[in-house]
């Protein structure tokens, strides 16, 4: 009988010997922090920079205790984009290997060497936290952090559009969405016991392919991630239709940074900006209530 | 997301500020009317 992946992972993880079967390469895009939610036992976890920020977010949000986890930190210089790679070939990929930063891809008729920087995941190209922010041990030397002058050119491009252009942009973005919820399931932030889309009393959103319902799902899911998203890219990685779900969360990350100077998951002692009151709040509606109408 | 910004308003009104509430609603209505009827994010349900 086929074992489910989760039971395989947990049975493998209980003894030291199956650790030999673990593979770490440029394809480890999935965020393992997703597996920590509400676990009660002691857990060892391998974490890249982004994963470690989600572990911090989990600790801040009481989804796991720091003393329960042993974090094996992996300084990361980016993961590769499976869609970018497959777009380079006409035929099915039949072989994959990597030596250092060179990736060798085989098809039935072709073999190509590609430098990993040519096919880097787009969230990795703008990443400024490649080293884990918390860890118990490191498997390699820390890597140099990237300095990105303009981390949000994609968001600005959308911000500059007119209302109708934005509408069409998101219409086009979501046209292939099949509502499989893989983005939600892969996301370490999406741990609600019952997601609003699965609720039936009241039913907040229709369950079919109506474009209004598809949009409502994506907008609301994104807003639930405001001030919490680490731009790990797990949602995009999980999407079977290659939808750049990060178009939604990136805007919220940009606003968090510009309005509150906040990046999620960097500090175990700080709560996310939408969760705290601060007299330094950039909006003045509390301080000057009564001045002006709106 | 493509909804005109004229349609979205935030205001801080205490339960004791009835007259402010009226002023705000009038002002919001006036601004929303300038952009006309909304056709976006509207779900058409056939009977």
Helix content of chain B: 25-40%
Q: What's the helix-strand series of chain B?
A: H
Please give the largest β-sheet of chain B.
Answer: none
Mean of pLDDT of chain A: 91
Q: Please bin the fraction of helical residues of chain A.
A: 25-40%
Residues in β-strands, percent of chain A? 5-15%
Oligomer: heterodimer
CA gyration radius of chain B, whole angstroms: 14 Å
Number of helices, where a helix is a run of at least 4 consecutive DSSP H or I residues of chain A: 10
Total E-strand runs of chain B: 0
Which term fits the overall shape of chain B?
elongated
Indicate how many domains the architecture of chain A comprises.
Answer: 2
Broad structural category of chain B: mainly alpha
End-to-end separation of chain B: 29 Å
**Structural class assignment of chain A:** alpha/beta
Walk me through this protein's architecture.
The complex is a heterodimer of chains A (294) and B (47). Chain A is an alpha/beta fold. Chain A folds into two domains: 5-79 and 120-275, no CATH class; 80-119. Chain A has ten helices and six strands. Chain A has helices at residues 5-13, 49-60, 82-87, 122-125, 153-159, 163-173, 182-186, 211-224, 234-238, 246-260; strands at 43-47, 69-73, 93-99, 102-107, 111-115, 137-138. In chain A, strand 4 (102-107) and strand 5 form a beta hairpin. The longest helix of chain A is centred in the C-terminal third of the chain and has 15 residues, at 246-260. The radius of gyration of chain A is 21 Å and the shape is globular. Chain A starts with a helix and ends in a 34-residue tail after the last helix. The model of chain A is unreliable at 1-8 (pLDDT under 50). Chain B is mainly α. Chain B has a domain at 5-33. Chain B has one helix and no strands. The radius of gyration of chain B is 14 Å and the shape is elongated. Chain B starts with 17 loop residues before the first helix and ends in a 13-residue tail after the last helix. The mean pLDDT of chain B is 91. At the A-B interface, helix 6 and helix 8 of A face helix 1 of B.
